[in-house]
Structure to design on (793 residues):
């Protein structure tokens, strides 16, 4: 059940949040958590009933292996169970995501042609697997460091109850496409409100943020999508201007789609009185690639830093500029491959890894450049590397990249004129509005942070919801991009 | 403002606005979905596919007894020229049989339609995709407030202010203009030299499905093989005949009417380039002549008791 469906908007979230609030106030825990679990099971089963056993099996396995691991007093045995757990999670991802890429690559290197059944792509598998990888790694240390972790991982008997763990894994605001969450920040909130704010006030703020995210998705992202789809559907000999416009459309589409989704996820969580990590903070205004990754898919960036980059760097001995550059390139490449099973994703990760490494060198040498130039170069880099995320193979990506540099008739619009009306009305289209919003407006998180219950914010929320409903009722809902990752 | 008041205010504003918008659209009712359409003359505004689909829900079965399922080839046939039947032209510019089937099913959802004219032409079975939007029941909800309805109002306003021309009449006839044009890319691909016409298997199945649906509703079927400019037809005559034979053998029965304009009787019409804008589409005068010929055939069939 996507967030941008009328069913979610009109029935599911009002009932889920309303009943949760009532149960929590009247009956308290564990009934409120039981309701969350029930609602989340329904939410997932409604979209992907056939993959529910995999999700529950994954939750059960990780819960069990964490219990066994934490019961070990011997460090080596604990490590062994950690690796068994990590290996099993990676194996699940491999068989559902990467097996066909692997088999195709064997054929490309003149190996035997092996076949494997197409099992489809389980909804949310990339996200709930990473959440549980973090859970296992966090559960590994003998003595939890933070007070919150100590509260949960008390004793050797087990890190969490099965009830807590399954609720943590399947919670509907983030099960499908994140943000990535850590167990010690989430599970305590099932029992006690994690925010100091009054739950109803938080729910209002959540509805406001949700309406912003919904409008970003259905009005703005879905307006850029046809242009990006047309441009990358069949890569042709575009002029330079057309190639850049298609890349910009793809970048804005991805940004509004995923940031809109993340706003809706966080808004939904707030409506339940839960706090989950923020995922976006005006990333397209970043002045360096380093800053971009602090603002784009923030929960994944934290995962890359804490669970890939840092362990890799530590494994290479004394950190130096060279080892940290290698670590960041490797970490970004792995993270990119997590996005999708294709060599184009690897190329995208490599490009970002190299750019981050260059950024490290730049900072270490205390070099500087004007903010505007920094923003421009970063934006240019982001726009051009989006090619790797939208093309089917490296040959198509290379073809599109070559179109980005001046060649014959650089400002031709032969392909574009069939897609965009060249009239003044285009200035009032969602495409033009979206460009201004992405580059000049404050982030939706900032808007939500300054939210106060007033008639003005009520009117703004109502207008946004109405606009979104109008669009939802107009065109078939487009799936969120990250559902495919 | 207290959060409780804020929540109530927001919900009231949303519900109020949705109600007002839906109420306005129900009152305007440009597709004739919410009020009786008898005696009303509704025309296509905005996206012609959406509009024709929605008009078929109520307006067509309440005001017509026959429909024509076709493509741009038959879009400008003014079927009010068929005097003993009230025929609505469901042809869609660039349309295929899958889209045509959706329109016909919408028309059959209410009683009223007793005869269906069905074009027999490879253009209908060359593809199966919906050109703009998927034509299904969800569109009825769009009539309460949507971008396509917004486009329809804009269209309506432009026509009322004489800044735009009305492209359709109340019987679904489209004004395709009267200028000689180059054949479009779809038709060029269709008529390129080849042993056979491409038949999309999904579209082919949809054609047979539609025929079965019409029979299940007790609708009489009139198959029409439209004329094509002789020089063009000649280059692919054998393939065309095989295509027509295939459809005839699979879809038609003895009780159906079969009007073939590619036979010798209409050779003169086909040889005259003045009749065709681009070799396949008809100029208005040719379309009028064709409808007159159809009318004669229909009158004859009614006289013989084969149509009613």
């Amino acid at each position: 059940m996507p967030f941008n469906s009328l069913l979610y908007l009109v029935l599911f979230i009002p009932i889920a949040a309303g009943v949760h609030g009532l149960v929590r106030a009247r009956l308290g825990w564990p009934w409120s958590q039981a309701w969350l679990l029930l609602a989340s099971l329904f939410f997932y089963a409604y979209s992907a009933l056939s993959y529910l056993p995999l999700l529950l099996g994954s939750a059960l396995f990780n819960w069990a292996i964490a219990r066994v691991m934490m019961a070990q007093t011997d460090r080596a045995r604990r490590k062994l169970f950690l690796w068994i757990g990590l290996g099993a999670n990676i194996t699940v991802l491999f068989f559902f995501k990467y097996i066909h890429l692997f088999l195709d690559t064997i054929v490309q290197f003149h190996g035997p042609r092996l076949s494997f059944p197409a099992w489809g792509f389980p909804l949310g598998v990339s996200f709930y697997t990473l959440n549980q990888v973090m859970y296992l790694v966090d559960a590994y240390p003998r003595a939890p460091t933070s007070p919150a972790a100590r509260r949960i991982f008390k004793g050797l008997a087990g890190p969490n109850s099965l009830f807590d763990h399954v609720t943590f894994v399947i919670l509907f605001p983030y099960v499908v496409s994140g943000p990535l969450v850590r167990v010690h920040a989430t599970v305590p909130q099932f029992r006690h409100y994690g925010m100091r704010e009054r739950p109803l006030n938080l729910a209002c703020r959540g509805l406001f943020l949700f309406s912003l995210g919904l409008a970003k998705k259905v009005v703005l992202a879905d307006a850029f999508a046809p242009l990006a789809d047309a441009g990358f559907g069949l890569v042709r000999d575009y002029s330079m201007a057309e190639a850049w416009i298609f890349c910009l459309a793809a970048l804005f589409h991805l940004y509004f789609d995923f940031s809109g989704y993340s706003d809706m996820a966080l808004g939904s969580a707030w409506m339940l009185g839960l706090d989950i990590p923020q995922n976006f903070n005006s990333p397209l205004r970043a002045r360096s690639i380093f800053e971009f990754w602090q603002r784009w898919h923030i929960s994944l960036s934290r995962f890359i830093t804490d669970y890939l980059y840092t362990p890799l760097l530590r494994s290479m001995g004394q950190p130096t500029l060279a080892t940290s550059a290698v670590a960041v390139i490797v970490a970004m490449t792995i993270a990119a491959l997590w996005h999708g099973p294709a060599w184009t994703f690897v190329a995208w990760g490599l490009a970002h890894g190299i750019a981050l490494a260059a950024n490290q060198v730049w900072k270490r040498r205390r070099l500087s450049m004007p903010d505007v130039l920094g923003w421009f170069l970063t934006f240019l880099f982001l726009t051009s590397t989006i090619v790797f995320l939208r093309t089917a193979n490296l040959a198509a990506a290379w073809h599109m990249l070559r179109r980005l540099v001046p060649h014959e008739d650089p400002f031709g619009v032969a392909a574009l004129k069939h897609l965009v009306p060249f009239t003044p009305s285009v200035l009032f289209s969602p495409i033009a509005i979206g460009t201004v919003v992405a580059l000049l407006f404050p982030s939706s998180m900032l808007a939500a942070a300054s939210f106060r219950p007033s008639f003005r914010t009520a009117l703004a929320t109502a207008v946004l919801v109405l606009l979104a409903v109008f669009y939802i009722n107009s065109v078939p809902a487009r799936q969120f991009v990250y559902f495919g990752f | 403002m207290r959060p409780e008041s804020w929540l109530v205010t927001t919900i009231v504003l949303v519900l109020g606005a949705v109600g007002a918008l839906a109420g306005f659209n129900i009152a305007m009712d440009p597709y004739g979905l919410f009020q009786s359409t008898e005696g009303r003359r509704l025309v296509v505004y905005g996206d012609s596919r959406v509009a024709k689909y929605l008009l078929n829900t109520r307006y067509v079965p309440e005001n017509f007894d026959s429909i024509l399922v076709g493509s741009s080839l038959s879009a400008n046939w003014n079927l009010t020229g068929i005097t003993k039947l009230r025929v609505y032209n469901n042809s869609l510019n660039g349309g295929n049989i899958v889209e045509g089937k959706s329109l016909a099913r919408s028309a059959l959802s209410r009683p009223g339609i007793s005869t269906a004219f069905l074009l027999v032409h490879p253009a209908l079975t060359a593809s199966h995709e919906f050109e703009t939007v998927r034509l299904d029941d969800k569109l009825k909800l769009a009539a309460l407030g949507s971008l396509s309805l917004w486009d329809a109002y804009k269209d309506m306003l432009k026509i009322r202010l004489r800044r735009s021309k009305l492209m359709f009449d109340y019987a679904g006839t489209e004004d395709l203009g009267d200028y000689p044009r180059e054949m479009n890319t779809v038709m060029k691909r269709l008529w390129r030299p080849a042993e056979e016409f491409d038949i999309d298997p999904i579209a082919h199945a949809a054609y047979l499905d539609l025929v079965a649906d019409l029979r299940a509703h007790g609708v009489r079927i009139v198959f029409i093989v439209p004329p094509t400019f002789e020089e063009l037809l000649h280059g692919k005559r054998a393939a065309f005949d095989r295509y027509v034979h295939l459809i005839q053998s699979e879809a038609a029965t003895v009780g159906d009417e079969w009007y073939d304009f590619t036979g010798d009787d209409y050779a003169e019409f086909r040889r005259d380039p003045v009749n065709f804008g681009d070799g396949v589409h008809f100029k208005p005068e040719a379309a009028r002549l064709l409808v007159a010929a159809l009318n004669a055939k229909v009158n004859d069939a009614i006289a013989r008791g084969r149509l009613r």
Remarks:
- Chain A has two domains: 6-192, 207-484.
- Chain A is about 70% helix and 0% strand.
- Residues 207-484 of chain A form one domain.
